[in-house]
Amino acid sequence: MTRKPIHIEVAMPSGPDHYWREMLARPKGFTVTEIALASEGVANTTVKRYVEFLKAEGFVVRIGQKRDGYALRAIYAVAKRVTKAPVRRPDPLHAPFSAREAMWNAIRALDQFTVSELAVSASTEERPVAQRTADHYVRALLRAGVLRAVAEPERLKGHGSTRGVYRLVKSANTGPRAPKLCNAGFVFDPNKNRVLGEAVVTEARS
Amino acid sequence: MSDEIQKVKPGATFAALKNVAGFRELVERLVERAPSLPNIGVMHGRSGDGKTYASIYAQNKTRALRVEVGDSWTRKTLLTAILREGGLAQPKGTIPELSEQVVEMLAAEPRRPLFMDEADKIVDRGYAEMIREIAMQSNVPVLLIGEEALPQKLAKIERLHNRVLAWFGAEPCDLEDARKLANLLLPAKISDDLLEDIRVRGDGRARRIATSLDGVAQWARSRGLSEVTRENYDGPIYTGEPPKARASRLIVQHLKNGRTA
């Protein structure tokens, strides 16, 4: 028997996609509880928050209410039938700082720093900055000439090593937006010293 | 380019330090205040007490705008700097125009605080009234951070002084704080007595304690030790004091005995 690969789309019974599908499947209206019960391992409040968002954006409207035991439950119906579940994307202007932005803030504020000091001072509980992340960023900024080593890290012969101490080059303090690390992908022709086709630059993920 | 990536506890933050937590509370109080209340907060403390650590932490928590006032700054540089922090690349205009732009920009996000580090320089150069104007018109939380004498300096400017909701004085580190710093910055174990020594000789200043701890870390690493006590530690302790004037007679005496000083 040969094995033939087949493609099956699997949808987890939770998440906005699932809620939205369930909502679309109820043209006569739905309650928050109904949707939560039709999902797997989802708290009522999760669905409620999503419905509140949809209501605020005008995707669903409240069409009435019904009695469920002692509770009075609101019935909603889908007002704008879009295929893709509406989701809230965080507004980049109001989103909390990313690790690199937090590090950039710290780099600009500290006179000089070691990698571990940078990682600790840029960390908050919600978004800790790992030593590796800080190390990676510091290396990239050093290469670009944004940082300067006050003390170079040294390997002492058989006696461990000293840590590097760095500081921001004054002229590189250009503003609040953190330098991005990017990868460039292109085809290079060494005969004519030129790039063939388009050079694509993407922001590196770390 | 650190050669070794230190294994310090993941998710370590300065949050638990008293000054960092205290400043965070001050910011929180200003952000959550009733809109009719004054909206200026002041943090004052000696240099090296950890005011900068506290402001970085609070900034990353609240997305605050932060400017560090320079010695030579004028009204215009300050306004331009605030606008640049807010994302405007090339602010242009006269001082009143710039100040209007600043107020407009700040007021767009009423919960986003403005930190002004080294604020005593603003008072020294005599344009502190401008801060009051910006704070009043934009109604965003404004945090002034400065040296120990900042409250006295502010007291002389009554109209600004009246807009201050709360004050926070950064305290010298106690042993508990020093212990937390050691946990964050030092991969080796350190005994209480040595830590206390480092704290007292560093005058309780977070910056000096951190510098000493860095020395201890290096010392321990080069000897392959995982525990450092007062008995075995013979490395440097950072006191921040300038070197003493050397007694030339002593040096000469040493030389006479055939030893170099």
Description of the structure:
The complex is a heterodimer of chains A (206) and B (261). By secondary structure, chain A is of the alpha+beta class. Helices cover 30% and strands 23% of the residues of chain A. In chain A, the strands form four sheets. Chain A has a two-stranded antiparallel ribbon with strand order 1-2. Chain A has a two-stranded antiparallel ribbon with strand order 3-6. In chain A, strand 4 and strand 5 form a beta hairpin. The radius of gyration of chain A is 27 Å and the shape is elongated. The relative contact order of chain A is 0.09. The model of chain A has no long low-confidence stretch (mean pLDDT 84). The longest helix of chain B has 18 residues. Chain B is elongated, with a radius of gyration of 23 Å. The N terminus of chain B is likely disordered. The chains are: A alpha+beta (206), B alpha/beta (261). Chains A and B meet through helix 4, helix 5, helix 6 and strand 5 of A and helix 2, strand 2 and helix 11 of B.
Which features does this protein show?
heterodimer; A: 206 residues; alpha+beta; two-stranded antiparallel ribbon; 8 strands; elongated; B: 261 residues; alpha/beta; 12 helices
Short overview:
The complex is a heterodimer of chains A (206) and B (261). Chain A has helices at residues 15-24, 32-37, 44-57, 99-109, 115-122, 131-143, and strands spanning 60-68, 71-78, 147-151, 154-155, 161-162, 165-168, 182-189, 194-203.
